[in-house]
Specification:
3 helices, elongated, exonuclease, Restrct_endonuc-II-like, hydrolase, nuclease
């Protein structure tokens, strides 16, 4: 998502955010990141949907 759109939607300028600070964590809420994608595409343990 473009930085301008993020600024409009969240009020946070992602260009000024440092990794690990509170604003950075707020931006990552509800975002599927590469380190968590396996949880999204993994098969169910029981084999049922």
């Amino acid at each position: 998502m473009a930085p301008d759109i993020i600024l409009l939607r969240t009020g946070i300028d992602m260009r000024a955010v440092k990794q690990g600070d509170n604003a950075w964590h707020k931006l990552r809420l509800s975002v599927i990141t590469a380190s968590e994608i396996h949880n999204v595409i993994a098969k169910p343990r029981s084999g049922n949907k």
